[in-house]
Write a sequence for this structure.
């Protein structure tokens, strides 16, 4: 098995203005000494309006954490009011962009075809997509969650070459676990993350599947991260609520790095 470095990405969702963003990034950076970054990659994913401030801070203070955006336009430029393009995000120094988050699928009606176009837009501009897949509670109750997530994964990657797939980060986020405090068990997370990796192996080859990081997301906290990352196919987490508290997030990152706590 490839040694995949865990990634902890904090998705702030629609929270924190740019002043608050600076304060939170400083808090995280202060709490996490350089040695932790050897064992875990840490990213913050603030709202668009905060990214320039985060960029200035990260570049100015040579911080080891990276950052990204919560969405990307499928288009490069033009009359698309309200959209933010890949070239703009690349110019802001973003490493990551979240694509296909269930909140975008649900509240903005993003379908698999649009998610696929956004994944391509991200890769075209050198951004790493954090591609989210996950089932709603009804699907889990029917017992078809693995097939559902695998279908979302393949649809989002449609038309990509294996070498492009290597650059994607996949995040399994069961919708019923997001912001609910109802975390999937480590075994639940492993079941789907493992199945997604197997699907990648079937379609793009074992070597690519082995290299791709598969994260879990949904009510991840410092209290449950250690057991989640112990699973063979869980390579970190996409964290919502717990990423808004600097101390808690730093603790969570340290635990994903194998501890000890800062
Ligand atoms: O992107 C993050 C996920 O939606 C998880 O959010 P949560 O940690 O608040 O449940």
């Amino acid at each position: 098995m490839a040694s995949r470095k865990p990634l902890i990405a904090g998705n702030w969702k629609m929270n924190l203005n740019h002043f608050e963003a600076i304060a939170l990034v400083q808090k995280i950076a202060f709490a996490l000494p350089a040695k932790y970054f050897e064992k875990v990659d840490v990213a913050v994913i603030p709202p668009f309006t905060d990214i320039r401030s985060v960029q200035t801070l990260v570049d100015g203070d040579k911080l080891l954490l990276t950052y990204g955006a919560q969405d990307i336009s499928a288009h490069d430029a033009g009359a698309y009011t309200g959209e933010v393009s890949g070239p703009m995000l690349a110019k802001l120094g973003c490493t990551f962009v979240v694509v296909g988050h269930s909140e975008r699928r649900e509240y903005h009606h993003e379908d698999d075809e649009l998610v696929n176009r956004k994944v391509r837009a991200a890769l075209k501009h050198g951004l790493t997509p954090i591609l989210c897949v996950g089932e709603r509670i009804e699907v889990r109750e029917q017992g078809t969650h693995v097939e559902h997530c695998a279908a979302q994964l393949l649809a989002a990657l449609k038309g990509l070459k294996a070498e492009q797939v290597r650059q994607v980060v996949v995040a399994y986020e069961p919708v019923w676990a997001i912001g609910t405090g109802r975390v999937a068990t480590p075994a639940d997370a492993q079941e789907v993350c493992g199945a997604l990796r197997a699907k990648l192996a079937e379609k793009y080859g074992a070597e690519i599947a082995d290299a791709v990081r598969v994260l879990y997301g949904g009510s991840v906290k410092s209290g449950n991260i250690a057991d989640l990352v112990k699973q063979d196919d869980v390579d970190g987490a996409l964290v919502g609520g717990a990423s808004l508290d600097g101390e808690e997030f730093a603790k969570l990152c340290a635990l994903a790095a194998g501890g000890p706590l800062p």
In short: The mean pLDDT is 96.
